[in-house]
Amino acid sequence: MPKQEGQKSKLLTLLHIFEQKTDENHRLNVPQLVQLLEQQNILAERKSIYSDIETLRSLGYDIQLQRGRGGGYWLAGRTFELSELKLLVDAVQSSKVVSASTSSRLIHKLEALCSDYEGIQLQRQVYVDGRPKSDSKTLLYSIDALHSAINAGKMVKFRYKDGTRTVSPWQLAWEGGCYYLIAYQDEKAPANIRNYRVDRMSGVTVLDTPRRGRAEFRQFDLPAYLRKHFNMYGGPEHRVTLRCTADMEAAMRDRFGKTPTFIPESDGTHFHFDVPVCVSPQFYGWVCGFSGKVEVIRGSGTYIKKEKNPKEVKAANDDPMGLQENSEENLFQTGLEFVDVRLMLEPEVAAMAASNADYTDCQKLQMIQKEVEKLVARGENHIPADIEFHRQLAACTHNQTLCNLMEIVVKGIP
Length: 414
Hints:
Blueprint: H1 7-21, H2 30-38, H3 46-58, E1 63-66, E2 72-75, H4 82-94, H5 100-111, H6 116-119, H7 139-152, E3 154-160, E4 163-175, E5 178-185, E6 192-197, E7 201-210, H8 214-218, H9 222-228, E8 237-245, H10 249-256, E9 263-264, E10 270-278, H11 281-288, E11 294-297, H12 310-318, H13 328-356, H14 359-378, H15 383-395, H16 400-411
Antiparallel strand pairs: 1-2, 3-4, 3-7, 4-5, 5-6, 8-10, 8-11, 9-10
Helix pairs in contact: 4-5, 14-15, 15-16
């Protein structure tokens, strides 16, 4: 019998059919396999299909047969289980530093690792805290270049924020949904270990210059570094004592690990512990986010500050900026500092609110704004309404830490 067309590619085509068209719930019998081959201009006899299946099995492909009504052949063993692919897709989809186009491309490639029917289940939308995904088109290339430089022990140069950086790369870290380069920089004094967000880099170039900072990284502990830096922001390192309510133990373990020793207090409702942190506004914001359940004790050791009586607590709540305690000569300077804080904080709150607010949030904000305008036009006291406007603006961010900080600010308005 003359050799039929497409015989050289038949085995590979048959394998692709098993990969794309079959799974445990979707099986194909021999006549269906012959028909699918014919659709790709490959003629095959039924007897040859049995022989090809045995050949694929001998090559290590787990092709199973279910006999009886509705039975047929399917590819049982794959490189990834469907649950593993779902996990990978969720990780790609939820990463805020991977652009939408890159996410779509990666997920499409992952779909090729399962059947067409299972691939439909990989089209998942994972919620990412209301934040937009990065539009970085060069992230994957930057990561690849940085890995190459680290493996080769070379320095790198890249554009970052408002200038060009030349640093010695040592490690890459994943923290808070972002990639960070941990590097030694000695361009500017003092020379030290710094971190850089990879999705904010561009034009990453591997240099021929050997990297520096070997002595600094010899004792470098990356997990400890990540625990000390809140949102990867730097600051002077201090050893502080944190006093927490008893229900905060799990949250503190998640943040600081097993190393700190939690010391229960005699009241049975609190514990405290010492921990090194890089003190920054982000650290204080993290503390404020617990709404009073975590308290920073100045200094080191196990000193617990004296509990305030109810009158002191009420006074602090009514005047969080301490304006009432200032003398007349200091009040003016404190007021100027208060304005500086508002000018620094409120534009950032407004920017986040613009990104995260939903329709209902905007309606509430517009109603309060109209009320403020009416009171101003009538010459009446508009301060309470203005304070409520700022509270609602913070609520539009859907960020509890910012809401807590804004509450302190509005309470300080004289």
